[in-house]
Amino acid sequence: MTPVWLLDLDNTLHDAMPVVFPRINRAMTAYVARELSLDEREAGALRAHYWQRYGATLLGLVRHHGIDPHHFLRETHPFPDLERIVRRDHRLADALRRLPGRRIVVTNSPLHYASRVVRALGIAARIDSIVSIEAMSFAGRWQPKPSRPMLRRLVARLRVPAARCVLVEDTPVNLAAARRVGLRTVLVTGISHRPFHPARRTRAGASKRIDVQVQSVAHLPRKALRSVTLPT
Ligand SMILES: [Mg+2]
Prior knowledge:
Layout: E1 4-7, H1 20-36, H2 40-54, H3 57-65, H4 69-75, H5 82-85, H6 92-97, E2 103-106, H7 111-120, E3 129-131, E4 137-138, E5 141-142, H8 148-158, E6 165-169, H9 172-181, E7 184-188, H10 206-209, E8 212-214, H11 220-223, H12 225-228
Parallel strand pairs: 1-2, 1-6, 2-3, 6-7, 7-8
Antiparallel strand pairs: 4-5
Helix pairs in contact: 1-2, 2-3
This protein binds magnesium ion.
């Protein structure tokens, strides 16, 4: 059976650390300061609090301040020059082409940003669809990664067994959630080494969460394909 590849975007398909993430970070702090009439230090502290408690600034703003999430997502991804700053790995398109089965980008970022990054990376023809954070809002709540209900719902919509889906990610806590839902997991290590989310640290060891570890998605076909492809 061919797998369904669920590919994270930031720090999995491209390196967001040097330019993209710092800019989003600054934009989010500025947004919180502006919308809630806080100074920069207070805004930063509130963001840290919501990050600890909910795993994302957005979730705290929606829950406690009635912020329009679409407005927040639009204002905090200011990239008129995205095509210039995205770091393109020229091996990526070929590597994706060699992965059999559907390839779906699953990202906690907004669709307008994700689709532009995919185009800028030159991989749009290799991607079947994008599941952005807007598609992770259901049952009256925003439930981005690492939400297990969201992952279960995603798998159900794909109409395949969870064990046929492979989450490819740089964030271990998301892989841990995927593993508990029954997905296969690939950790991408080469771009960033972000710490575990402190509020959601799992006791499971790395070997229990991760089927395969690769430095780059460019290595996926060679290194991961055999071990995550089920026998027919
Ligand atoms: Mg990521």
